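Section 3.1: Structural characterization of target chains.
Under the original work plan, the team committed to producing a structural model for every single-chain target entering the pipeline before any wet-lab resources were allocated. The record below documents one such target. The sequence was received from the expression subgroup and is listed exactly as submitted; it comprises 113 residues.
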Amino acid sequence: MEQILKRQADRVRRGEPCIEEDSEFHYAIALAAHNSIVVKLLDTLMGLLQPTREKQLQINNRPKSSLAGHLKVLDAIKRRDAEAAESAMRQHIEQVEAIIQPRKPAARKAAGA
């Protein structure tokens, strides 16, 4: 995982897309968990979200943000802190979700928009 994130950091510094490293990192975690269901779910999600991921991972500070999230997850894993790793991954996924599917303002929700 460290090598994956090193390559991702190098690509971010050069301003290059790092979609492959992003995917590799998520797969490395799923494979390390030895959970075939998670791997299959990841296969499905990565396939469905590929076009969106390609676009989003090239916008503004998104590559740096993605790398920062991955580094937090890896740090918790290296410390063997499962709770912190889960929290860091949840935060990372929520950040991605907010970019992919922005929430409607409360007033628009109440009006049925």
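The helical segments are 2-14, 19-32, 36-56, 62-78, 82-100, 106-110.
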